[in-house]
Design brief:
The chain has helices at about 15-25, 30-40, 45-55, 60-75, 90-105, 120-135, 140-155, 160-165, 175-194, and strands spanning about 5, 30, 85, 110-115, 170. The protein is α/β, with parallel strands linked by helices. It has a single domain (about 5-185), classed as Rossmann fold. Strands 2-3-1-4-5 form a five-stranded parallel beta sheet.
């Protein structure tokens, strides 16, 4: 069973690729973004706190995100399929917390697959996505740049964390969705052989 972290800056195409991977491999897709948006939509205490933080382009605190992830993993019925983690972990502290959560369930992360996209392309994609989604955090260039800066300053260090464990792989995130998907599938299929 493979548990995979799908990694990359906002707008890299993680959600699109995750859905394709779910369809092909029957992974469970665990998107912290979707979980947080659900909390915001339901106007829970967690959702209201998260909305103010997200609207400023900042990351939601580790303890909130980790507790949501822990709860979802503990409540999963079918432990024979892998999980695609999308949006978590985003910091070294979260990565260590995820290791702790997975170890408690006798599981571990198999791979981190990073989708690499340059900043100008990310801004363009997010603005386009914002026109469709009407998400406030996808419509303001300053907020988008803050999110990219946060990713570059805090999140990108995770590549080294997983590289040191021999679990890091990357793909170019520019090009046809199908071509990027084929590269990701090759990484997953090759890892199953080893």
């Amino acid at each position: 069973m493979k548990h995979i972290l799908l990694f990359g800056p906002p707008g890299a195409g993680k959600g699109t690729q995750a859905q394709l991977l779910v369809d092909k491999y029957k992974f469970i897709h665990l998107s912290t973004g979707d979980m947080l948006r659900d909390e915001i939509k339901r106007a829970t205490d967690t959702g209201l706190k998260a909305k103010a933080i997200i609207d400023n382009g900042q990351l939601v605190p580790d303890e909130i995100v980790a507790e949501m992830v822990r709860s979802r993993i503990k409540n999963m019925k079918n432990d024979k399929v892998g999980i695609i983690f999308d949006g978590f972990p985003r910091t070294i502290a979260q990565a260590r917390k995820l290791d702790e959560i997975m170890n408690a369930e006798n599981q571990q992360i198999s791979l981190m697959i990073a989708i690499d996209v340059h900043d100008d392309e990310i801004i363009k994609r997010i603005i386009e996505r914002g026109k469709i989604s009407q998400r406030s955090d996808d419509q303001d260039v300053i907020t988008i740049k803050n999110r990219i800066d946060t990713y570059n300053n805090q999140t990108s260090v995770l590549a080294d964390y997983y590289r040191q464990q021999g679990k890091f792989k990357s793909v170019a995130g520019i090009g046809a969705i199908e071509d990027i998907f084929a590269e990701i599938c090759k990484i997953i299929d090759d890892s199953r052989k080893s």
